[in-house]
Every structure is written in C-alpha cells, then in structure tokens.
Amino acid sequence: MAVRHDPSRPVDRRVRLQGRPVDAYPALPPETERGSVRRITVVGEEVLSRPCREVTEFGTPELSALIDDMFLTMHVADGAGLAANQVGVDLRLFVYDCPDDDGIRHVGHIVNPVLDLPDPGSRRLVDDSEGCLSVPGATMDVPRTDRAVVRGFDKDGHPLVIEGTGYFARCLQHESDHLVGHTYLDRLSRRDRRDALRQMEGRRDDVFARRAVKAAELSG
Question: What sign has the CA pseudo-torsion 54, 110, 151, 154?
C-alpha cells in the first residue's frame, strides 16, 4: 500500500511494534539493514490474482529473510504495507509500517492473517484515497471500514492480534485483500478502474525511477 502524506494529521512519536507499545523505535526498522531489495510485481501478473498459500513452517531462516527483504523493499518504494505476493512469493504474509489517524506509527509483520471487520450494523465506511505499490502512480478513492482486526502469527509461530483504526485499518484491509488475490482495483467501478490504469501508464516510469534512486541511496 502506498503512503499518503497528510500534513493535517496530528504528529505523534508513539510506536506500536507488533501491536505492542514501545518507548522508541528507529526511523528505519532493523529488518531493512538485513534485507535485499526485491522487484515489486505489477497488476496483471498472475501471482497477484490468486489466493496465497498458508505458511506451514515457522522460525526458518528463509521466512526471516523474506520478511527482511519485504521491509527494505517496502521502504524503498515509500510504502505503508507490502504483501508477499507483491514480491512474487505466494505466501500469506504481509509487513507494515503505517500511521493511524492519530499519528501513531504501527510497525510489524503478520503471517497467515485472518481479517475481522466490525458487524455491518456497527461499521462505518470511509471513502478515502488509496494507492498500491503494485499499481504504481495511481490513486483512487476506495470505501473501507474505519476499524479492522487481523489475527495470525509472527514469524516464530506466536499468536498475534493487530488492531487498526483509520488509515492503519485501511492498510490492514488492503494487504489482506492481496493475500486472497485482489488489489484495490477490484473494488472499483469499471470506469474508475480504467482511470487508475491510465494513471499508472502515465506515471509508473517516474515511480520506478524514484525507487531506483532510493535503493541506490540506501545501499550506499
């Protein structure tokens, strides 16, 4: 999911790591120092349009390395979230580094997440701007609930419950969609989908160039 910078949002130094508050946290998560940049898949590639497989082996070096790579790739692309199939791996896993509407930063990963939304009678839908690292350069308004919970596991198999409100709730829903083979384009009308694809066609070269520059800066 692409980051939306909104200067009207309050700034808060609080951070919730894997759903738990921490006193301090670096601007770049430690995973980025260990990771390698991977290519981000683009809408139309088959891996983005099928449900991802459950992770069955926890605590492996391969899973840790994938998470490290995903964090670095997400930051190079100025993302707020990234699902495994966005780096070509069809596993149920996503990482995030995303603010909520109170400016609190949420950082972490979750494996085999199950999305839990409020009951229809109590949920509030919000139309707001949304982008996607796999739809480079395009943004459209997408309706999402203003609260969401995902339940799953960390990379070592420990249970996790991550709660989100506002923009972070949008992120949790966006990334969960990826893991069932959907992008935000699937939630748009045909007309809006065509508009988003036209935006991508006109802007993606500039997006790719910015990513390349940032990757070079971080590797330097």
Answer: positive
The CATH architecture to which 15-219 belongs is Alpha-Beta Complex (3.90)
- In the numeric block, the tokens 């800066």 are attached to 217
Angle at 155 between CA 73 and CA 117, to 5 degrees: 85
Q: Rounded mean pLDDT of 26-45?
A: 96
The closest alpha carbon to 67, from 38, 43, 47, belongs to: 38
**Nearest of 59, 76, 67, 58 to residue 31 by alpha carbon:** 67
Active site residues: 175
- Residue 102 half-sphere exposure toward CB, CA atoms < 13 A: 10
What's residue 4's pLDDT? 52
Q: Compute the average pLDDT of residues 170-190.
A: 98
Give residue 85's identity as a one-letter amino acid code.
N
Model's pTM, two decimal places?
Answer: 0.94
Please name which of 33, 28, 49 lies closest in space to residue 107, comparing C-alpha atoms.
28
